[in-house]
């Protein structure tokens, strides 16, 4: 491990760190292009042929996201044990990346196919949905091992800088991925965006494959596989001994639930409810991404000046304002404001919540509670989309009112989250 902190320029130009951060650029191309933009657009175009079916398409998108999150919940505790037992990170990053890329390319292949029916659904559509669930699961699984590689790249003081560098390149990956599809795919069928996004993911992941190495594991850790589930259970029980951590975990669950669902459902909502063309939504999404970058930077300073508890409350209120603006039948231009506020919240919530976990965790238990924090985020990725999709399914006969009701349910989540956050007490000696 490095004894002395290196200057940022030296740090970022280190081959292993640059290759690691470039992987964030790579996998964000997948998450932005496929998860947030083009899979929802594909489903809406194929299924949403009338007002009722537009709501059903929202249900399909939401349930597909919830299904992939459920698989991640089931398997992610095993991944932590696998890392401890083998000491390997890169091997599993490569495996999961190749699976994600393969599934993305197959989505592009089957997306335009319609040669028969499976369970009353066109076979190309059916296979594309299944491949999406699998690809999002393998993408998220690879990120578990990717995040686990961070601590070996530098000293404790360097890790936040390295992490921030990865996040910054990730946002650039979002913009690069969108422009690449617009330039290369152009006006051709939307399913072509899938194979292109997969290939770009692989291309920019290659430096990590060839440059980075896992640190030598001197002592083999023998842990039974089921210990991963036991660890989560015991950490959850222990969190109850620290009321503020417990309340914040609940608050983060609901706030993140609302935010993640809003981002996942933004494309179908903007096109089927607000009335934007798919091409116009791409510009909205790019603007939201720029506001995410600004949010991450600005709220870091706000957090430093006013403390993490009030800063997190401000983020919650901005998110609530975004949901209200989006839910009401206001002029179309107001959705630009909602999207910008969603972007600010998306960019800042992780920056501030990570600080709160550090402030609230007892000394020596930071890793334990970060694990529970990550598990809470994964759980919320199931609940929000499932609730949203169920509302649009049940109320599909009411057309756009179904989606407006579904997005309003996210406001309820934010209010519950802010209530539990109000009960958090950050010790004065820990507050930033």
UniProtKB/TrEMBL annotation:
<feature type="transmembrane region" description="Helical">
    <location>
        <begin position="60"/>
        <end position="80"/>
    </location>
</feature>
<dbReference type="GO" id="GO:0006869">
    <property type="term" value="P:lipid transport"/>
</dbReference>
<feature type="transmembrane region" description="Helical">
    <location>
        <begin position="401"/>
        <end position="420"/>
    </location>
</feature>
<feature type="transmembrane region" description="Helical">
    <location>
        <begin position="92"/>
        <end position="111"/>
    </location>
</feature>
<dbReference type="InterPro" id="IPR024671">
    <property type="entry name" value="Atg22-like"/>
</dbReference>
<feature type="transmembrane region" description="Helical">
    <location>
        <begin position="336"/>
        <end position="357"/>
    </location>
</feature>
<keyword id="KW-1133">Transmembrane helix</keyword>
<feature type="domain" description="Major facilitator superfamily (MFS) profile">
    <location>
        <begin position="12"/>
        <end position="425"/>
    </location>
</feature>
<dbReference type="GO" id="GO:0022857">
    <property type="term" value="F:transmembrane transporter activity"/>
</dbReference>
<feature type="transmembrane region" description="Helical">
    <location>
        <begin position="159"/>
        <end position="186"/>
    </location>
</feature>
<feature type="transmembrane region" description="Helical">
    <location>
        <begin position="369"/>
        <end position="395"/>
    </location>
</feature>
<keyword id="KW-0813">Transport</keyword>
<keyword id="KW-0445">Lipid transport</keyword>
<feature type="transmembrane region" description="Helical">
    <location>
        <begin position="117"/>
        <end position="139"/>
    </location>
</feature>
<keyword id="KW-0472">Membrane</keyword>
<dbReference type="InterPro" id="IPR050495">
    <property type="entry name" value="ATG22/LtaA_families"/>
</dbReference>
<feature type="transmembrane region" description="Helical">
    <location>
        <begin position="192"/>
        <end position="211"/>
    </location>
</feature>
<dbReference type="GO" id="GO:0005886">
    <property type="term" value="C:plasma membrane"/>
</dbReference>
<dbReference type="InterPro" id="IPR020846">
    <property type="entry name" value="MFS_dom"/>
</dbReference>
<protein>
    <submittedName>
        <fullName>UMF1 family MFS transporter</fullName>
    </submittedName>
</protein>
<dbReference type="Pfam" id="PF11700">
    <property type="entry name" value="ATG22"/>
</dbReference>
<feature type="transmembrane region" description="Helical">
    <location>
        <begin position="311"/>
        <end position="330"/>
    </location>
</feature>
<keyword id="KW-0812">Transmembrane</keyword>
<feature type="transmembrane region" description="Helical">
    <location>
        <begin position="278"/>
        <end position="299"/>
    </location>
</feature>
<feature type="transmembrane region" description="Helical">
    <location>
        <begin position="245"/>
        <end position="266"/>
    </location>
</feature>
<dbReference type="InterPro" id="IPR036259">
    <property type="entry name" value="MFS_trans_sf"/>
</dbReference>
């Amino acid at each position: 491990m490095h004894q002395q902190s290196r200057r940022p320029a030296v740090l970022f130009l280190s081959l292993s760190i640059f290759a690691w951060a470039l992987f964030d650029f790579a996998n964000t191309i997948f998450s932005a292009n496929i998860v947030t933009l083009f899979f929802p657009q594909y489903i809406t175009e194929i299924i949403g042929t009338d007002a009722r079916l537009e709501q059903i398409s929202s249900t399909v998108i939401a349930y597909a996201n919830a299904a992939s999150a459920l698989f991640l919940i089931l398997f992610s505790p095993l991944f932590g044990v696998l890392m401890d037992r083998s000491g390997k990170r890169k091997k599993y990053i490569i495996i999961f990346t190749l699976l994600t890329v393969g599934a993305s390319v197959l989505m592009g292949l089957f997306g335009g196919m319609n040669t028969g029916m499976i369970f009353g659904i066109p076979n190309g559509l059916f296979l594309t949905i299944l491949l999406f669930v699998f690809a999002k699961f393998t993408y998220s699984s690879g990120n578990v091992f990717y995040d686990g590689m961070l601590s070996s790249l530098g000293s404790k003081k360097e890790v936040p800088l390295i992490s921030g560098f990865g996040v910054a390149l990730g946002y650039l990956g979002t913009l690069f991925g969108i422009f690449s599809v617009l330039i290369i795919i152009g006006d051709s069928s939307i399913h072509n965006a899938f194979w292109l996004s997969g290939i770009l993911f692989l291309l920019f992941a290659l430096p990590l494959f060839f440059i980075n190495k896992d640190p030598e594991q001197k002592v083999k850790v023998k842990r039974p596989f089921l210990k991963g589930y036991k660890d989560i259970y015991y950490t959850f029980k222990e969190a109850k001994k620290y009321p503020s951590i417990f309340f914040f975990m609940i608050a983060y669950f609901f706030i993140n639930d609302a935010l993640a669902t809003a981002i996942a459902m933004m494309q179908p909502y903007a096109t089927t409810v607000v009335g934007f063309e798919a091409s116009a939504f791409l510009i909205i999404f790019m603007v939201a991404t720029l506001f995410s970058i600004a949010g991450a930077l600005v709220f870091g300073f706000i957090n430093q000046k006013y403390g993490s508890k009030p800063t997190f409350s401000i983020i919650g209120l901005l998110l609530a304002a975004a949901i209200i603006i989006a839910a009401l039948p206001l002029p179309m231009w107001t959705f630009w404001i909602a999207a910008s506020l969603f972007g600010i919240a998306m960019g800042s919530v992780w920056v501030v919540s990570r600080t709160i976990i550090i402030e609230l965790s007892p000394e020596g238990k930071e890793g334990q509670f970060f694990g529970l924090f990550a598990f809470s985020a994964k759980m919320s990725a199931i609940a929000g989309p499932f609730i949203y999709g169920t509302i649009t399914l049940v109320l599909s006969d009411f057309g756009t009112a179904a989606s407006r009701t579904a997005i309003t349910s996210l406001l309820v989540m934010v209010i519950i989250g802010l209530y539990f956050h109000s009960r958090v007490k950050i010790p004065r000696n820990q507050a930033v």
